[in-house]
Write a structure and sequence with these properties.
By secondary structure, the protein is of the alpha+beta class. The chain has a single domain, classed as Alpha-Beta Plaits, CATH 3.30.70. The chain is about 30% helix and about 35% strand. The chain has an eight-stranded antiparallel barrel with strand order 2-4-3-10-7-9-8-6. Strand 8 and strand 9 form a beta hairpin. Helix 3 runs antiparallel to helix 6. The longest helix is centred in the middle third of the chain and has 14 residues. The termini are close together. The N terminus is likely disordered.
C-alpha cells in the first residue's frame, strides 16, 4: 500500500480544520537501555493498514519523567486498524512493553483544531507548547491569521493546534512546530519572533499562560492505507 504523510495529504501551505480528528497521547518513561526494543515492538505491532490517521512513537526531551510518547490519531468514527487483533495478541504486546517502562504522567486526549500540512518525513523534530488559552475563539482567529502570514518562514514545516479534552499538564490547548532538528527549530522560532506577524499575534490572541514547552523527535510514523 502507498504510504502518505501523517493524517491526510492536501495542497502545501493550507491551514485545515480537523475537528473530527482525535489525538491520544500516552507518555512513557522507558527504562535505561530499552528504548530501541520498545521502538521495535511498537513498529512490529502497529505497522499495519489503518482505517484513518496514524500511530507514532517519539522520543521526548524537557518533559519531566517522560522519555517517549505513543500517539494515536484518527477519526473516532473510523478508528483503529483495518484488521482487528485478537485479545491474546494485544495482551502479549502490552506485556512486553510494560516490562520495559516505568510509570509516567501527562498522557492526554486532544482534538485537532488546525493543521498546516508540510513534509513530515523531512521534519521529524517538534517543539510543543502546552498552554491555558483564556479566550479560545479569539485565539483561534488570531492563530489562523498568524500562520497564514508566516508561510514564507514556515516553508515545508508542519504546525498544528489542538484542544486538550482530558489529561495533560493542566493546559487547555497544545500547539507545535516541526523542523528538521533542534537547531532548525531554534532558528525558525527566532525568525518568527522577529516578524511583524508575531507581534500582531501577541496583541490579538488574548490572554495565554504557558504551562510547558518541550521537544520530541519522531522515531516511527506509521500510517499505511
Amino acid at each position: 500500500m502507498k504510504k502518505i504523510y501523517f493524517l491526510f495529504l492536501f495542497l502545501f501551505g493550507t491551514i485545515l480544520s480537523f475537528a473530527q480528528t482525535s489525538v491520544r497521547v500516552i507518555n512513557l518513561d522507558v527504562k535505561m537501555g530499552e528504548a530501541a526494543e520498545v521502538a521495535r515492538l511498537f513498529k512490529n505491532y502497529h505497522d499495519v493498514e489503518r482505517k484513518s490517521g496514524a500511530a507514532v512513537i517519539q522520543s521526548a526531551n524537557y518533559l519531566d519523567g517522560v522519555t517517549h510518547r505513543l500517539i494515536f490519531a484518527g477519526d473516532p468514527a473510523n478508528w483503529g486498524e483495518k484488521t482487528e487483533r485478537s485479545e491474546s495478541e494485544w495482551q502479549a504486546y502490552i506485556g512486553k512493553i510494560q516490562k520495559k517502562i516505568n510509570n509516567a504522567n501527562g498522557s492526554m486526549v486532544m482534538t485537532n483544531l488546525r493543521w498546516r500540512q508540510g513534509d513530515r518525513q523531512k521534519n521529524k523534530s517538534t517543539k510543543h507548547w502546552e498552554m491555558i488559552v483564556h479566550e479560545p475563539e479569539k485565539f483561534v482567529k488570531a492563530y489562523d491569521k498568524f500562520v497564514k502570514s508566516i508561510g514564507n518562514i514556515l516553508e515545508d514545516r508542519v504546525v498544528s493546534l489542538e484542544s486538550i479534552d482530558m489529561g495533560g499538564l493542566g493546559g487547555t490547548h497544545n500547539t507545535w512546530l516541526s523542523g528538521s532538528d533542534l537547531n532548525d527549530l531554534i532558528l525558525t522560532e527566532r525568525e518568527i519572533q522577529k516578524s511583524k506577524a508575531f507581534k500582531l499575534f501577541l496583541e490579538e490572541r488574548g490572554k495565554v499562560d504557558l504551562v510547558k514547552s518541550y521537544f520530541t523527535n519522531n522515531i516511527h510514523l506509521l500510517n499505511k492505507r
